[in-house]
Automatic annotation (TrEMBL):
Segments traversing the membrane: none
GO MF term list: ATP binding; DNA binding; DNA ligase (ATP) activity; DNA-directed DNA polymerase activity; exonuclease activity; metal ion binding
Assigned keywords, A-Z: ATP-binding, DNA damage, DNA recombination, DNA repair, DNA-binding, DNA-directed DNA polymerase, Exonuclease, Hydrolase, Ligase, Manganese, Metal-binding, Multifunctional enzyme, Nuclease, Nucleotide-binding, Nucleotidyltransferase, Transferase
Organism: Variibacter gotjawalensis
Full-sequence portion shown in this chain: 556 to 862 of 862
Organism classification: Bacteria, Pseudomonadati, Pseudomonadota, Alphaproteobacteria, Hyphomicrobiales
The name this protein goes by in its record: DNA ligase (ATP)
GO biological process terms, semicolon-separated: DNA recombination; DNA repair
Source species, domain of life: Bacteria
Length: 307
């Protein structure tokens, strides 16, 4: 089978300059995934994942005892961080501890050593903090919403994004929902992106009030899909493509081709089956992501509204 070969590659790749303490500690008990298994997983997916996490401030969910223990979100640097992890001071947070970024697989392995079970990047890079290069619509199903309805919502978001000249990509969250993501030329400022995505979420909700809501307060009524645009703000994050989730099932956030949606579910891809999926792919459905950057059409749409 192809498994031993894949495992060998992972071993070779996942040992760079970081010593994992307690490599046998079990992080996902149901699947038997250990700390070493997590490091091996990231070594396998690194080439695909790197463009979405390198050089970005990261919020990290750390769970030293695995998914059954207590987890905590951390975004500022702490003492004893491995040298491979970059400390990046937020230009707008003078006097605070720096934020955290990585630039290679060693850095990612160091995050595993620090018991990081989820990686949540900003939508802008440390080269250009104030100009987002990634738009994300976080589609959250209310109680009773079907997968078919989630797929329809994702397609509607895609059409609306494409109508203003943006490319649209989709990934599972590894939780309950989907993320529709557009690569942006980093020209517009954060408030422009928030305004644009708010207008889009509000339009979806007002055109189909029985299907969609754009505010968290209304989402509590259930049965509808929350079009959560609030990830599109400075300092906010969404889980990275290929990040694991600190939840039962060992699911990961998996980039998909649009026509794959109907054959999977939000937590279909896991630490266990994701490497096989990637190895079997003829073409990475997100291969053209960064090449597809387009500018936000905020000025055009604002003009239209004013008329
Ligand atoms: P699901 O599909 O289950 O909704 P999700 O990752 O989209 O999974 P959300 O609750 O919708 O989860 O949150 C969206 C994003 O907001 C998260 O991926 C995360 O980056 C960020 N987020 C949510 N809660 C927190 C938190 N307490 N601290 C930091 N970031 C958070
Ligand atoms: Mn969500
Ligand atoms: Mn959400």
């Amino acid at each position: 089978t192809g498994m031993p070969k894949a495992a060998k590659t992972a071993k070779a790749k996942s040992t760079p300059d970081v010593t994992l303490t307690h490599p046998d500690r079990v992080y996902w008990p149901d699947e038997g995934v250990t700390k070493q298994g997590l490091a091996d997983y990231y070594a396998e997916v690194w080439d695909h994942m790197a463009p979405f996490i390198v050089g970005r401030p990261l919020a990290l969910l750390r769970s030293p005892d695995g998914i059954t223990g207590k987890g905590f979100f951390q975004k500022h640097a702490w003492k004893g961080l491995n040298k491979s992890i970059d400390l990046v001071p937020d230009p707008k947070e003078k006097g605070e501890e720096p934020l955290i970024a990585i630039h290679d697989l060693t850095g990612l392995t160091a995050l595993v050593q620090a018991a990081v079970l989820e990686i949540h990047p900003w939508g802008s890079t440390v080269k250009d903090w104030e100009h987002p290069d990634t738009l994300i619509l976080d589609l959250d199903p209310g109680d009773g919403v079907s997968w078919q309805e989630m797929i329809a919502a994702a397609h509607e978001a895609k059409e609306r994004l494409e109508a203003v000249g943006l490319a649209a990509f989709v990934k599972t969250s590894g939780g309950k929902g989907l993320h529709v993501v557009s690569p942006l030329k980093p020209k517009g400022a954060w408030p422009d992106l928030k305004e644009f995505t708010k207008a889009m979420a509000d339009a979806m909700a007002s055109d189909s009030p029985n299907k969609y809501v754009s505010t968290i307060a209304k989402a509590k009524r259930g049965g509808k899909i929350l079009i959560d645009y609030l990830r599109n703000q400075r300092g906010q994050t969404a889980v990275a493509a290929y990040s694991t989730r600190a939840r039962p099932g060992a699911a990961v956030s998996m980039p998909l081709a649009w026509d794959e949606l109907s054959s999977v579910g939000p937590a279909y891809f896991t630490i266990v089956n994701a490497p096989q999926r990637l190895a079997a792919l003829k073409r990475d459905p997100w291969a053209t992501f960064r090449k597809s950057e387009a500018p936000l059409a905020i000025k055009t749409s604002a003009k239209k509204v004013r008329k």
